[in-house]
Amino acid sequence: MSCFSCFQPSKKKSAKRSISLIRRPGQTPVAVPRKEPNIVPQPRPSENPKPKSPPKIKTTTTNSNTNNNKDTNKEVAASGNNNIGAQTFTFRELATATKNFRQECLVGEGGFGRVYKGRLEKTGQVVAVKQLDRNGLQGNREFLVEVLMLSLLHHQNLVNLIGYCADGDQRLLVYEYMPLGSLEDHLLEFPPGQKPLDWYKRMRIALGAAKGLEYLHDKANPPVIYRDLKSSNILLDKSFNAKLSDFGLAKLGPVGDKTHVSSRVMGTYGYCAPEYQRTGQLTLKSDVYSFGVVLLELITGRRAIDTTKPSTEQNLVTWANPVFKTPQRYPELADPLLRGEYPVRGLHQAVAVAAMCLNEEPSVRPLISDVVTALSFLGTSPDTANVATAHTSSSSPSSSPPSDQNGRSQQDEERLLQERQRAVQEAIEWGSTSRHNNGKSRFGSASSL
User: Composition bias, kind Basic and acidic residues: at what positions (predicted)?
Assistant: First the structure.
């Protein structure tokens, strides 16, 4: 299945391309295009270039730009079959919200453009405004894809799109503001003096990202392949809840008897699945591999690609692969900044899940739903469990089982440990036996390439 059509501004009036919606009971509708233009991928610049002075703001547009703006808005509305809930903003409104895109409002910058913090004048809502670089990597096609995807897909672990602007040649996206920035800011680039993420926050972030992927893979119809999962695209709210952002490279997954969708190789080096890099064949398991890289970053505190390290350690997955084969060496993978403050059993389980996701053979990688099951117990800290157990004990009869000094009964502790072990063991057993399973997957694509 191909992805959404591309709008290219031109003085000539472009032909309309029909896009329909597939809707099934109990599932989220997704716009389905009929033809994909040829997009030549370009190498990404550094993920964190030094901020430059913002461009001068032009608030006047020509008649040609005005017509282009109307055509873009019409195409967005037509592609979403009038189901687009995102607001349409003028460039002047967003310039006012960001104080004319002042440097003091700049909160991030990447290959696609700059992100500013702003406040909408009409509602007072604090938002994040992404101004796409007109000469950058994200063109009209990616802009249209992101508007459609985030307008039709809604989940607590996906960033919420508030609206967009297509005035003249300006392309801007307005999101809910995520006060803690990206996972990269707290894991790989935090300033001196900032406390590093503890183990349980890392596992909760991993679980949130996995749940976002699970929604895209299992709930959307047809399924959506995210294709650009990385630490800088995982945003955090004030409670460290993870939300996936930046859907410009998202692509509709295979349906029916198809095992994959063919696509030009796009994404971020170090996160892309090896079979996708070799063949351009994209499956849901491609996202699972990328998730494994992010999970390994959370465990080790290392970048997927780090050219400042010795040559044998520059590629995170290549460096970790020998350790995966020897469980006794798993502690070598733990981030030194954790200072040993992590549960040994939890570390072993997290590394085992990462190793399954990073398997060279796509058919052996678990479904993302299995990953969610395996991680669901790893983000629960003892303090949280103690509070829940103490609350239950206080409301139970006095004949309840004796508790230890932490307020948790021996039976509760044993039961929780058994549930954790069983969930992870089931996922591990599934991964080790799935290559021999000839049954069809739920989407007809996840079992094998």
Answer: 410-423
